[in-house]
Amino acid sequence: MSLFESWKNLAEEQSGPIESESVSINKETVNYGEEAIGDPALEKKKNRSEELFLDMLNLARGNDALMFQFDEIKDSVVRYINKRRELNDIAKESRENVGRSGQEEHSDREQRIIHDALIDNLNIFSRMCANLGKDNSWRQNIGDLRESVAVWADNVYSLAQKDTKF
To answer: Which residue intervals of the chain are DSSP H helices?
Structure first.
């Protein structure tokens, strides 16, 4: 079973067919953008993710190599969330038998590649911080699980897209 299918099945088991831009991960709904407002638990998680993102930016300031790698992280976040949104749209069209039905597998593979690139960029930035004697505890706070990286990316998407090339 593909990652796309497992997310889709999990989401539908928990809340019925996916009709909005949300994905269920570990029995918690991850909302895009401002939709987290009003749910204190999601707001707290979003705020913590944004704090980590801004801490990373502060670590990068003043060092061209770190700043370049931080920009790579931002670009990866934007690519990943955009691809995930596209997958949600494809799933909806597929359920409705319109549009891009049958493209799920190809897009799912692309999303995995983009997600892997995001994780790699986070790990590279973390190693660079460690090599320069800078704090890299933010990496541990994001977590090593793919799902935790996905939640973090979702929470910082609006910050990351502000000045990316996409």
So the answer is: 3-15, 40-60, 64-95, 104-131, 137-142, 146-160
